[in-house]
Amino acid sequence: MKNKGKISRRGFLKTGIAVGAGVYGLSYLSTIKKKPKLKQLKKHNLKPDLVVVHGSLTSANEEAIIVNEMVRRAVSALGGMRKLVSNGDKVLIKPNIAWNQAPEFAANTNPYVVAALIELCKDAGARSVKVMDHTCSTNPETSYNRSGIASAAIQAGAKVSYVNKNRFRDFVIPDGTVLNLWPFYEEMVYKDEVDVLINVPIAKQHGTSRLSMGLKNVFGMIGGDRGSLHTDIHAKIADLNKFVKVDLTVLDAFRILKKNGPTGGRLDDVDNSPGNARRIIVSTDPVAIDAYGATLFGIQPKDVGYIRKSHEEGLGEMDYKLRGFEEFHL
Amino acid sequence: MKKKQNNWPFYTRRVIQFISFSLFLYLLLFLDPLTERDASVNVFLRMSPLSAIGAMMAARKFIFNYWPAFLILFLTIPFGRYFCAWICPLGTTIDITDGFFAGFRKYARKSVYDGRRIKYYLLAFLLLSLLLGLQCAGWFDPLSIATSVFAMSIHPYIVHLGDSFFGYLGNIPFFGHVFSFFHTFFQDVLFAYHAPFFRAHGILLFVFILIITFGIVLRRYWCRNICPMGALFALFSDWSFFKRNVSSTCTSCGLCVEKCGMGAIGSDGKSTKEGECILCMTCRKVCPEHSVTFRRQQPPIQKYAIDLSRRAFVVSGITSAAIIPFLKLNYRKKINKENVSVIRPPGAVNEKEFLARCIRCGECMKVCKTNGLHPVLLEYGIDGVWTPQLIPRIGYCDYGCVLCTRVCPSGAIKRLPLEEKRWVALGKARIDHNRCIPWVGYSRLPELKKEWQDFNCGVCEEVCPVPTKAIHFNTYVDEQGREIRRPFVREDVCVGCGFCEKVCPVLGTSAIVVEGIQPQTTVKKERDLKILPSGNFLPKTLGNWKRITETKAYEGKEKLYEYINGGAEPYLSYSFIRVTNAEYGDDTGKEILIDIWEFETAEDAFGVFTKDRAGIDIKLGNRAALFENYLCIWNDVYCIKVEPRQGDIPAGEITAAGKSVIDLMPYKKEMLPDIVRYLPENNLVKESLKFFHKKIILDNIFISDNFIEENVFHLSEQTNAVIAEYEYGEEVSLLLMLVKYPDSNIASSALEDAIQLWRAWGENEMVTDAIHTFQSKNAYSTSFLREKHFLAATFLSKNREEGEKLLKSVLEKL
Known about the structure:
The structure holds two protein chains of two kinds.
Chain A: H1 9-31, E1 50-54, H2 63-77, E2 90-95, H3 111-123, E3 128-131, H4 140-146, H5 149-156, E4 159-160, E5 168-172, E6 181-185, H6 186-189, E7 196-200, E8 202-206, E9 210-212, H7 233-243, E10 248-257, E11 270-271, E12 279-283, H8 286-296, H9 305-312, E13 325-329
Parallel strand pairs in A: 1-13, 2-3, 2-7, 3-4, 7-10, 8-10
Antiparallel strand pairs in A: 1-12, 5-6, 8-9, 10-11, 10-12
Helix pairs in contact in A: 2-3, 3-5, 7-9
Chain B: H1 8-29, H2 31-36, H3 49-59, H4 67-79, H5 82-86, H6 89-100, H7 102-107, H8 118-131, H9 137-140, H10 142-170, H11 176-190, H12 201-213, H13 221-226, H14 228-236, E1 243-246, H15 255-259, E2 272-273, H16 282-286, E3 292-295, E4 303-304, H17 310-328, H18 351-357, H19 363-367, E5 373-375, E6 388-390, H20 403-407, H21 418-421, E7 424-431, H22 437-443, H23 445-448, H24 459-463, E8 471-477, E9 483-489, H25 499-503, E10 512-522, H26 526-529, E11 541-542, E12 545-547, E13 552-555, H27 556-563, H28 568-572, E14 576-585, E15 591-599, H29 602-612, E16 616-618, E17 623-627, E18 630-635, E19 638-646, H30 651-664, E20 684-692, H31 695-699, E21 720-727, E22 733-740, H32 744-760, E23 764-768, E24 771-775, E25 781-787, E26 790-797, H33 800-813
Parallel strand pairs in B: 2-4
Antiparallel strand pairs in B: 1-3, 5-6, 7-10, 8-9, 11-12, 12-14, 13-14, 14-15, 15-19, 16-17, 17-18, 18-19, 20-21, 21-22, 22-26, 23-24, 24-25, 25-26
């Protein structure tokens, strides 16, 4: 053939149009994808109580065992994980892994708490357990590793993954007072991606919002410019919590960070005395959790703006003893 | 029949070249995890004799870290210019791209310069400029070029390309998952969750394209004519044991001439250009007559000398002498100080030496976990081009990371252990009050008063990784209790990591900006910071007052006895930390004394204030009282006392001095003890309220005719107690005491003990509901009530009903 490897004007136009139509057609296909359903709160038979388990430590080596046992006892006091997680459920555990800091500084959730929850979920028949957080460190790897959560979770049989920046989508917050639209992480809000969402915060002092516990931990489920949320933060925390459907909150107060939070870095600021810390608090009501947590810092729950706002807007009960309160020592 | 020749040297070369190039790519791609394990990831960079000589001569120091470079150079003596064909990653890259250009080369007109001399002149220029103290060898070092091109241009391009390609395909229904699966795999391998981005990647790519495009005309053009490191090896290659020999069987067929990548073979196929053979073994392989061997001796006729002109050397010498002062000129006038405010990586040696040592390889930028290190372009002047700088808006310096200090081959960045690195300040953060949200809010206060908006932010304080925080708040509160918390930087502890600048939500330029400092300093360690914070509130001058004594501090129990022997016990019943004092005087000879008492909690400071309060309440600090010209202020964890020492000082001046002290303190909201809330407010005499823990305070309050010897109320550090006066019209008054115990058992035993004591005094006992009331002979009644872990009591009531009524209203509040 004479014109081998060459293309005629007509051929060029034809191929151009065909390729263009193909590419456009494929992208069009991707837009007709059905909009996935949003996750709702899972129906469960857990008690509405707030359960506080105290534990003490005589030597540092015991921490793994004691914390594990505390979490187990706390969850079983609530009715047991089987009442929440059913066979074949996809569970997502969202600890606080925000900072590149070792566990003893109480900047991130205690890895043993995360590990214990993973084991409980697996025992209850969960198909998969995933652990993730949108870290404050630019590079999630540093926080995941230094916090000890990555290795503890993998060992306990969970899948540990980083946040994928392409998977934040804008969602409408139905009755938001100051926020109407914000990007949330798809894997934490879509029904077919997650059945049970467990929030595992740690109790810390926080400069802007005073305290960081369950309600504030939702900042790790969102994308966008999180810095800009810090003006009028209390109303915004309440709004964000209207959208996410957290089934169970487990507050790690085994160590609490009393000063220079939320990053910490000084053992002097970490309180691990039995008087204020050394406890695990479990409830399905995040507001009750935070209200109890505030008392550990000597703060009245109603003095923390977002706890009061969340309570007023019906996200939970600020009087944490109202729906049942159980407290015991290990 | 010809003997069959074994081509093992050629294939060995190919294998070693392949291994070496793969290793190079592997080390770059997995730089982060390997550096964390402290592997020698910079081994290729340390192999470069050009950089080694460059860094050492410019810094005028021997750098032991460069021993592989000397090994390579030493091996050049027996092996010639082997490095270029066997190891050099840039050479391998050019070999690969030259393969792509083979088609072009067929038609190219070979009228490009191929005189081989430029590289020598360039080398001469670089070495001479080193003597003049300018290190630009790195810009021409093939290993530096390969490292930075692959790390900063090619890797990010591939990652971005893959991300967008798979991102597009992954969205398509039905078969999208397949691509998503590949995407995940691809991300895992290339660590592409956060696709790296480097400033000026385009310039690097341009340089790279320039280098490889010569391949259109001639193979390995860079190695033949430009590479100064090649020139350096060539100078050493004359003693090589492996020189190209052509035996008499040569038919001058010209095959080797055509195949030689370096164009080192003369057109007759017999002679070899001096210093150009890189021992790639291709000519040996292609020769149909097997006439090529490599031996120590080379017949003189087969040597083809490259004539270097003396004149050209002189010219390159003069050029470097003339050009270098120009390059060293900081053409940006504002950089007329030593400090150029570029943020260098942690551990960077002082600026002059840094410029001398840095070989511009980009390894530190590649390894940076947060992608915060980027090349300097012209911010610094020409001699700083391509050195690393931290751009906090893109990425900050992680407080727990030392990777960049581990990879530097030349020691421009010192190795720092993590513990040491945490105290190194790269720069200092400064806040722009015209951009910072709370500061702008504060300046808009007059208009805000009408319609309040929340202007609080504080993200910078939140992320500050310094354990004691380098950013703190200065809080303004209006009459309605609304706050604006304005951040400020404590420069003495700021490490300049730039996390605050990174997260600042102000659009565009951050409202908090880090400026680099050179040389980097070590910040004060925490324990140094602990010295007498309350001493900071007693500066040299306070308004018109000048300090006339040293600031003295009495910390802990023993020292307090030294200060006020006898009166110390009541203060120690609160969580006393220290008292700091100083005397101030003015020009007219008046003198005042200021005591600052510091306690562990604001509640205890409040307790001491209530204990010592006298006179009228005035508005200062959290609370204040003035008795004639004695002033007592409660503010946060401090209780401040100002009293006259000498001269006639009006109350106004005392108050002014107290206000100046308060102004120095950070504002804290009034934190009243919890128990105060339970006091009924009707008829309460607010000034009479006293908060305490231990019995010693109660001893000084008249509550009954008999002195109470035993601690019947079981008061201790664990108990919070409050006592206050209630007034009902003229002359009718009583005292209410409320005690909160750690648990109800102690409360009930306190009640029992108190009742027993009163019984022992033989007073009339009456019980109504849960209230025990005793009436003494002079008609004063005392009532007790316990509820949960609280004990309430009224004393000195003339009227029994009033006391019991008050207790009932307390009960309602509990």
